[in-house]
Amino acid sequence: MTTPEVTTTDLATALADGAAVLDVREPAEYVQGHVPGARLIPVGQLPARLAEVERDGRVYVVCASGNRSKVGADVLIAAGRDAVSVAGGTSGWMRAGHPVVTGSRPTA
After folding, report:
1. CA atoms of 88 and 50, how far apart (whole Å)
2. Which CATH number does the domain housing residue 86 bear?
3. 10, 85 in Cβ contact below 8 A?
4. Residue-range definition of the domain harbouring residue 53
């Protein structure tokens, strides 16, 4: 199975429409800069925390570069969710000039 992927441009458009974004990196990476509105659930914790992920609508899964987000999207798809990996991850998001949020600790 090939994990469905979208571009950072697709994510920006979806965010403007209120899309759900799931960041599957570790907390230390997340606080250094994440997509605005992204909820943090590290990929290793995702199977145990599926109940925290939106059930309705598409979930855009992002990591640093796009590798862990594929794993995260696959976990969600296997659980019956509509999920896609964001190609290029947060690094690609920032390279494209999109805004990031930083902080001393995760908010989600």
Report:
1. 24
2. 3.40.250.10
3. no
4. 5-95
